[in-house]
Specification:
The chain is an alpha/beta fold and 299 residues long. It has one domain: Ribonuclease Z/Hydroxyacylglutathione hydrolase-like (Metallo-beta-lactamase, Chain A, 4-Layer Sandwich), CATH 3.60.15. Helices cover 17% and strands 25% of the residues. It has seven helices and 14 strands. A seven-stranded mixed sheet has the order 6-5-4-3-2-1-14. The N terminus is likely disordered.
Length: 299
């Protein structure tokens, strides 16, 4: 589904992916969901990613650089490319209505930052693309190749985010990073509170538990829905891959549904919510949804 511009909304958020880091189909998996996606490309699911656009300033941003970065950027720019490589001026593509003005990173797990490779000399060869992240995430990029090469080569400029402090992108669009608990072997992890002129949105694709986490009020929430229940991963030690089960998240956020549109994202390939069935129906009846690629909101 291509990105659809709402003429009445000059600030928008668009969901560019809904799957866990491995996407669907998942490498090495022959489960029902993955097999169906291999047989029918329309059932493929991109890794979780959120696009933001301010049509007043003709700027856009991505939250997370996933392995599906090329397709997600292409979608956000409405099937045109506004990024001009350095040099070869005659080969530069025509200017789009939107231009990519930066990327925000939630953490250092493979589905959330490895798309940065496409900014390097082998592909886009961007010049000083702003990449916003925490200090620990920035240290990870600076100290590890090939990411360090993007910094040293001038492809990206790292901008440090302060937890809990609002970062204004335009007069009508801001983001605030919120620290959340998640496996911290390489970096810390943040969710983002995105505010536009009329609505705000919480983007939280990864979290260990909702315990002791206070999210700010928002009209829209895109929340970690990695696993529906422990039954979907027999033989795996789920303590090594902690995520709140959707069934538990529903209980935790039930009161929010009166004022907030809640959609679950970052679904693992094993998640039964990929398919229509009683679980999806119950979710809907209780006021929750499952994120859909191309879904957009006026902010």
């Amino acid at each position: 589904m291509p990105f659809q511009t709402d003429e009445s909304a000059h600030v928008q958020a668009v969901l560019l992916g809904t799957a866990q880091d491995g996407g669907v189909p998942h490498a090495g998996c022959t489960c029902r969901t993955c097999a169906a996606a291999r047989q029918d490309p329309r059932k493929r699911q991109f890794v979780s990613c959120l696009g933001l656009a301010d049509h007043g300033t003709r700027q856009c941003w991505l939250i997370d650089a996933t392995p599906d970065f090329p397709s997600q950027l292409h979608t956000l720019l409405d099937q045109t490319s506004a990024i001009a490589p350095r040099g070869d001026a005659d080969l530069r593509p025509p200017t789009s209505d939107l231009r990519l003005s930066g990327l925000f990173l939630t953490h250092a797990h493979i589905g959330h930052y490895t798309g940065l490779v496409y900014l390097g000399a082998e592909v886009m060869n961007t010049g000083h693309m702003p990449v916003y992240c925490t200090e620990r995430m920035a240290t990870f990029l600076v100290e590890n190749a090939p990411w360090s090469g993007l910094v040293q080569g001038g492809n990206i400029n790292l901008h440090l985010l302060e937890i809990g402090s609002k970062h204004a992108l335009t007069p009508d669009l801001s983001l605030t990073p919120l620290l959340v608990p998640h496996r911290g072997e390489y970096s810390d992890t943040v969710a983002f509170w995105v505010k536009g002129p009329s609505q705000s949105l919480i983007y939280c694709p990864d979290i260990d538990s909702w315990d002791d986490v206070q999210l700010p009020d928002a009209e829209i929430a895109l929340l970690d829905g990695s696993f529906y229940s422990p039954a979907e991963l027999p033989g795996r030690d789920l303590s090594q891959i902690p995520h709140p089960f959707v069934s538990d998240s529903v209980e935790h956020f039930q009161a929010w549904t009166a004022k907030t549109e809640i959609n679950f994202i970052h679904l693992n390939h094993s998640n039964i919510l990929w398919r229509l069935g009683p679980e999806r129906q119950e979710l809907k009846q209780r006021g929750f949804g499952v994120g859909v690629f191309g879904q957009s909101w006026k902010l």
